[in-house]
Write a structure and sequence with these properties.
By secondary structure, the chain is mainly α. Helices cover 45% and strands 0% of the residues. It has helices spanning 5-16, 26-33, 53-61.
Length: 64
């Protein structure tokens, strides 16, 4: 399944009140698009806040 780091940054920002850098959203993108039916909880490491404010504004405005 295909995912977009921009889409994950946009999903995390308003929904979760997190501001990851684009690369830091990769674990969330994988978890949201890959099946995980082990019956055990999944953990995502979200790194970030090292994103320039102008880049973040562009990511949040960019059409998906």
């Amino acid at each position: 399944m295909k995912f977009s780091l921009t889409a994950e940054v946009r999903w995390l920002d308003p929904c979760q009140k997190l501001v990851p850098e684009p690369g830091g959203a990769g674990s969330v993108a994988t978890a949201r698009t890959a099946p995980h039916d082990s019956g055990r909880p999944a953990v995502c490491v979200i790194s970030g806040r090292q994103v320039a404010s102008e880049l973040l504004r562009r990511l949040l405005r960019k059409p998906l």
